[in-house]
Amino acid sequence: MAGWDQYITNLTSQGVTHAGIFGNDGSRWAASPSFPNIDHLRDELPKAFSAQPSGVVVNGEKYIFIRNQDHFAVFRKGADGMVIVKLNQAYIVSIGVNQKPEMLVGATSKIGEYLKNCGY
After folding, report:
1. pLDDT tens for residues 34-63?
2. Does domain 5-117 have CATH number 3.30.450.30?
3. What is the pTM of this model?
4. Do residues 111 and 7 touch, judged by C-beta distance below 8 A?
5. Strand 18-23's sheet: what is its strand order?
6. Where does residue 5 rank: exposed (0-12), middle (13-18), buried (19+ CB within 10 A)?
7. Which GO terms describe its molecular function (predicted)?
8. d(CA 5, CA 18)
9. Which residue, 4, 9, 39, is CA-closest to 23?
């Protein structure tokens, strides 16, 4: 899907270490180079918005659930943070190495809101 890379570039230019956009079916629309593997992507991402989320497994390590709101969920593993934004047809995942997850929320939510308003 041409054009998705611009959103990844936007996120990484704002300090996000790894960013990816994935369809609801788990397909990879775009991702930064060496984006970590999210185990069972198709199953893991929707869990972030379940009634009792516990965490998401990335490269075999669990990111612990911190909080979620209407369209985003926040996770942490040690000094690393992760934000998942839920769109209509996809998810945006931002991971920050040595970054508090709250720093990732603003940039990721802004792009998510834009894409959601465009029907994605």
Report:
1. 999 888 888 888 888 887 778 888 888 899
2. yes
3. 0.92
4. yes
5. 28-31, 18-23, 90-96, 80-86, 72-77, 61-68, 55-58
6. middle
7. actin monomer binding
8. 12
9. 4
